Structure formats: C-alpha cells, structure tokens
Amino acid sequence: xxxxxxxxxxxxxxxxxxxxxxxxxxxxxxxxxxxxxxxxxxxxxxxxxxxxxxxxxxxxxxxxxxxxxxxxxxxxxxxxxxxxxxxxxxxxxxxxxxxxxxxxxxxxxxxxxxxxxxxxxxxxxxxxxxxxxxxxxxxxxxxxxxxxxxxxxxxxxxxxxxxxxxxxxxxxxxxxxxxxxxxxxxxxxxxxxxxxxxxxxxxxxxxxxxxxxxxxxxxxxxxxxxxxxxxxxxxxxxxxxxxxxxxxxxxxxxxxxxxxxxxxxxxxxxxxxxxxxxxxxxxxxxxxxxxxxxxxxxxxxxxxxxxxxxxxxxxxxxxxxxxxxxxxxxxxxxxxxxxxxxxxxxxxxxxxxxxxxxxxxxxxx
Length: 365
Ligand SMILES: Cc1cc2nc3c(=O)[nH]c(=O)nc-3n(C[C@H](O)[C@H](O)[C@H](O)COP(=O)(O)O)c2cc1C
Ligand code: SF4
Description:
Residues 6-331 form the NADH:flavin oxidoreductase/NADH oxidase N-terminal domain. By secondary structure, this protein is an alpha/beta fold.
C-alpha cells in the first residue's frame, strides 16, 4: 500500500499525527524587541487549528546583527524565553509538534544604527537589496556556530521539540553553500569541501549539545540563477547534513533574486508543486525523511506526492491562510472544494493572514 498523508510519522521520538506541516511564515507580530505578543499567539492558535501535525514557527533571529526585517522574532536573548514558552505551548495544546526556525539573514539583512554593514561569506551585495556587505572573519563564523547552538538551547528550554535551521531563500546559511555568494578560499569556502563546512558545523554543534532535539534543515535545492547552486550540490549537502545529525531535510528553492518580483518561483508563473522533483532527488540521496513546500495548491497533489514517495511531509504556507479548512478537505471531512490561493503578492513577505481567506483573520481585528 502506498503511504498517505494521514498516516503518522515518527521523528526523533516525536510522532506527527499526519504528514502536514505549517510552513514557517514571518508575521512581524513580535514587539520591538522581538518578543512574542498576544497577537502572535492568537495567530498561531488559528494556524495550528488547521490540523497540521507540525508547526515550524517563523524565522527567529539568532544574533542582533542578523534580522532580515523589523520585528523579527528574537531567539538570542533570555528575555525572549517566557514568550517562546507560551508559543511552544500554544502549538502543543492543539496537538501539533512545535519547531522554531533559527535564522540569520546575512547579506539579506536589515541595517540598523549599530549594524550598518551586512555580513556574509564574501562581500557580494544582494542584487535585490544592494546593501553594503563585508566578509565574515573565520573567528566570527565560529562565533555564529555558537550563537546558533545557544538559540537552539533557548528553543529547547522554551519547550520546542526541535529547531529548523533556515538554510534556504538566500539567507546566511544558504549564502555559504551557493557559489554566487561564497567565493572564500579559506576552510569555509567551496573549493576544499563539496559542501561548505559552516552549515555542517552548526548541525554538529547543536546535535552534540542536545541529543534529543529534533533538527530540521531547510534548504533551497537550487538558486534557479545562472552559475548558482545546483541540485547535485544540494544532494551532497543533504547527505552531509544527515551525517552531521539532522533528522529532516525540508526542501524549498531560490534566493531573493529568484523569489522576488513577477517571475517569482512561488508566484503564478511556475508549475504547482514547483520543488517536488528536487525533493524526490534529495529524498533518494538521504535516508532521513524529506519535506517539501511550494505551491501545493490542491489536496490531490499532496496525496500524489506522498503516495509516490517524492517526500515524506507536505509543507503548506499560503494555502492554510487562504483556506484554514484545507486539511479537513484533504481528509474528506469537509466536502467543499478548497479555496484556491491566488499566489498574489499581498502576503509575499509577512503573514497577517489572507485578506480574503475563507475565515477572517480575527487575530488582526
Ligand atoms: C508571508 C510569508 C512569510 C514567510 N516567511 C518565511 C519564514 O519565516 N521562513 C521560511 O523559511 N519561509 C518563509 N516563507 C516561505 C514559506 O515558508 C513557503 O515556503 C512559501 O510560502 C511557499 O509555500 P506555499 O506555496 O505553500 O505558500 C514565507 C512565506 C510567506 C508567504
Ligand atoms: S494574500 Fe494572496 S497569496 Fe496570500 S494567501 Fe491570500 S490569496 Fe494567497
């Protein structure tokens, strides 16, 4: 019998009740210091009520120079702990496994008074943002490994079952694996290792420190840009991450230069299930489970991806905002057709619900 999305899945001792995962989606509902607010908790209550087996809470920054936008969730200071505890509890109470996504924006970062220059593997500005960038010193890279590990400790203390490392969409970890952004010739470059050492060191360090913590690694399988990251390199990276101690590889794609604008990889111009084939290749390269996101518009497609074993988990973002009954409909508990997401730019950057979703985003009123 082929697998189906309503079968449970075990990950490092945790059982997901089904194969649906709420995608990490930045809300900007944190307060000015990046702390969890009541509005954010209400948002996650709604998101978890969709019936997903796991929720990856939005990108949370691991260091003061790392945010990608204002009011990004804070995962680096002790004052964030009580709010993160409430967030993990809110997700658990509704029967989903909570993960916290750990993030550093690197060259796609937001300048501040204290940090006017962005940091990255090499001093190459993002063509979309065109902000000043300097290359990280090897010692700073080692410090960042420690900061990711400290943030993982904060997530564990807050009651999250695990963390997801944001290695996709052109942010810092991705910048280390793409030849477009990593032109270093030291030990963190791409010449001496098939996959850059930095992401592997982050995973190894977290695994060593927290043997029971679930570790998901979200990667962009390809940059979808000339001379960018290839699928073949990402398969090697995924194998390396598995060896380093990751439990799950979550497949996405692109960086700002291929995700923004009218030709966005997740806009109307690309096929449904746009990263499905890449996920299948990565699934074949590793023996840990693989998740896939990206325009999985209809339940039939989700059923097909799971039945074909292209991926073990389906990650849904905008689909759940547009139609909170999507999963019930996929299960046949609600016979109405799903409300199709329009793939419009209105919620491209920060999720405040779909303005004309099936249920009004009451947390926002
Ligand atoms: C409003 C919004 C915020 C997002 N924030 C994040 C984020 O914090 N971390 C991340 O990895 N991806 C983020 N994404 C990408 C989603 O996780 C997902 O990969 C993307 O929306 C494609 O899936 P979908 O077609 O089901 O929406 C965001 C997407 C949206 C629409
Ligand atoms: S705002 Fe647009 S892209 Fe976002 S969920 Fe609604 S229809 Fe989809």
